[in-house]
Amino acid sequence: MRAVLPGRLDAAMDALAGDPGLVPLAGGTDLLVHWPVRTTARDADYLDLTGLDELRPIRWEEGTLVLGALSTYWDAIVDPRIRSELPLLIDAARQVGAVQIQSRGTWAGNVINGSPAADGVPVLMAYGATVVLASTAGRREVPLDAFYTGYRETVRRPDELVVEIRVPRGERPFEAFVKVGPRRAQSIAKVGLAMARDEAGWRVAVASVAPVVKRCPAVETLLDGGGPLAGPEDLQTAFRQDVAPIDDLRSTAEYRERVLARVAWHALRDGGAIPD
Amino acid sequence: MPPESAPIEVAFRLNGEEVAVSAEPAERLLDLLRYRLGLTGTKEGCGEGECGACTVWLDGIPVDSCLVPAFQARGRDVRTIESVPEEALRPLVASGATQCGACTPGVVMTAMWVLENPGLLETHTIRELMAGNLCRCTGYDGIVDGVAAMLAARGEERGE
Fold first, then answer.
1. Which of A25, A46, A100 to mutate: most B Cβ within 10 Å?
2. Which of A113, A115, A144, B19 is most buried (CB neighbours < 10 A)?
3. Burial of A37 (0-12, 13-18, 19+ CB in 10 A)
4. What ipTM is given for this predicted complex?
5. How many Å lie between the alpha carbon of B47 and the closest alpha carbon of chain A?
6. Residues A69, A55: contact at Cβ < 8 Å?
């Protein structure tokens, strides 16, 4: 195992351009799990990002919250401005492990790890976030809902680093995040759901019900139409077009699909988006 | 900049004192503390960031030291259970916050952090703040009561 320890972003990008096999490493909450016995992971070559202060800050621009690639869940949890403007980030962050994970895990790491059960990703996607990738060849900005190409596969080239995540600010008359797990703390989602409506319409993003975290165009179309909904079954019919849940050690496909529709229904009703 | 496969010099502040050791690239902070520096108070439980037995402070906030590469400690401030004065543990002992003791060093490090940051209780419950420390003996009530007692004692000291 080897480690590259750059102190500046341009040095990090140079290193990655010279050796695209390097694995970028930040908080380590995914990559270091059982490190001593996962010999393939342990023996990989790592590019340590924690010396890159350029990637650290949370920054507010007009219309955008910029999460530097090293910003953690805890950075968001203790930020009162995020709590008031983009509360779903806090709702999701508080359900990622506990403080020991929240203090180390990064939003960018959650995105790049590509787990279909990610907690941060559906919320970022419902908010319409974009991912900024940088390399010695330049920068590009990719919408998060176009970032995943398959199970744990993304559009990131091996020479690129995620340097920031950009989250649009603005009025959202409705927003909700629901995570269904076996218990409230320290669990991995059986179903994750984030929904937000802004002037452009609904964005509905789901986790643990497809190979990737994804948007649900059929459900969004249904909600954008504004027609009456008789019950969770109407949502489930739409969700069925959008998701492809499986049976695995955490849950079953049938449970996931039914519960997804029901938690969406209750979130919409509790939030006043469906008349009683 | 070729990758370092040779040992990496890791200089950091440990329980208030500067230390410098050379670490293997694949060494975890947990291993560095226990096996190279002899601070065996920090325990390994699960090795996957679930149980919190290996909790230490990194720049003042709890982390699972099994998920921290030793080289990431360079230039940072690390605090372990060895830095906690014995008298600080009394409210926990009195509340039945420990039995077999495997989780206790981690529990104490998180509890001390809550004690140092009581403002967190405006947004969080003790239970949520302590959720990263699993305990199979106490049923948690003793731990929650112990942290509450520590906070109450600290408040009295300050005349609140």
1. A100
2. A144
3. exposed
4. 0.95
5. 5
6. yes
